[in-house]
Amino acid sequence: MPQAYPSTALRCPCIPTLILGRIERGTYSPSNSPLVKESLTPAKEAMEAGLIRCVGVSNFSVEQIQQARDLVDIVSVQNQYNPWYRQPELDGVLEYCEQEKLTFLPWSPLGGSRRVSRLQDIPEIAKLAQEKGVSVYSIVLARLRAKSPTIVPIPGATKTTSIEDSVRSLEVTLSQAEVSQIDKAS
Ligand SMILES: NC(=O)c1ccc[n+]([C@@H]2O[C@H](COP(=O)([O-])OP(=O)(O)OC[C@H]3O[C@@H](n4cnc5c(N)ncnc54)[C@H](OP(=O)(O)O)[C@@H]3O)[C@@H](O)[C@H]2O)c1
What does pLDDT average to over the chain? Predict the structure, then answer.
C-alpha cells in the first residue's frame, strides 16, 4: 500500500476479513444502541476468536460510532460522500474520524454509476481537469484525498480503464484553493 495512506485498516493485512457493521439509513435514533450492539456482536466475537483483525462500520453517525467503539475496536467508517452528498462534512463524522484517527472510506465517491457521467457538467471540476490534463474522475478523487489525510476513496469500477484512471489520480494534487473552488460549486 502507498505510504501516503495513513490508514490503520489498510496497513493491516486483513482486508479480506474486514467486517462492516452496517445500519440501514433511516433506522437510526439516539436510543438505538441495542441495534449497534446487535449489529456488531458477531464482529466482536469473531475478533475475540482470532478470526478477524479489523472491524469497520458503515452508515454510522458519530453517536453510533462511539457506541460501536464501546463494544469493539473500530478502524474505519464507510459513509456516502461525493459532490452531491457532503453530509460527512456537516454531521461531524469526518471530523470525528480525523480526531480519532479512524480511516474514512467514502462510498460512491464519484456519485455512483447513475450520476458519474454528470461530473463533467460541474464547470469547476471540468475546468480543473482540462487545466491539469486529467479526467474529471481523477479530480474528484484527488479532492477527497486533499480534504483529509484520513480519507481513502473506494471508487467502484467494472472497466479496467476506470481502475487505471483511478490509480493515475494518485498523482493528482489539488491545492486548498482548488478544493474550495470545487466545494463552492457542488
Ligand atoms: N456501505 C454502503 O452502504 C455502500 C453503498 C453503495 C456503495 N458502496 C461501495 O462504494 C464503492 C463505490 O461505490 P459505487 O460503485 O456505487 O460508486 P462510484 O465509485 O461513485 O461510481 C462507480 C461508477 O463510476 C465509474 N468509474 C469509477 N472510476 C472511474 C474512472 N476513474 N473513470 C471513469 N469512470 C469511473 C464506474 O464505471 P465502470 O463501472 O464503467 O468502470 C461506475 O459506473 C463500492 O465499493 C461499493 O460497494 C457502499
Answer: 87
The reply to whether the predicted model has a pTM over 0.85 is yes
pLDDT of residue 39: 86
How far is the C-alpha of 165 from the C-alpha of 150, rounded, in Å?
A: 22
What pLDDT does 23 receive? 61
Mean pLDDT of 81-98: 97
| CB distance 150 to ligand 1 below 6 Å | no
Q: What is the DSSP letter of 13?
A: S
Q: Which atom of ligand 1 is nearest to the CA of 105?
A: 10
Ligand 1 mutation pick, 18, 113, 152, max ligand atoms within 8 A of CB: 113
Best mutation site among 27, 76, 108 for ligand 1 pocket (most ligand atoms within 8 Å of CB): 108
Q: Which residues of 47-56 are buried (b: 16+ CB within 10 A; e: fewer)?
A: beeeebebbb
> Is residue 154 pLDDT above 80, yes or no?
yes
Q: Which domains does the chain have, with CATH numbers?
A: 1-107 (3.20.20.100), 110-148+157-186 (no CATH)
- Grid cell at residue 145: 484525498
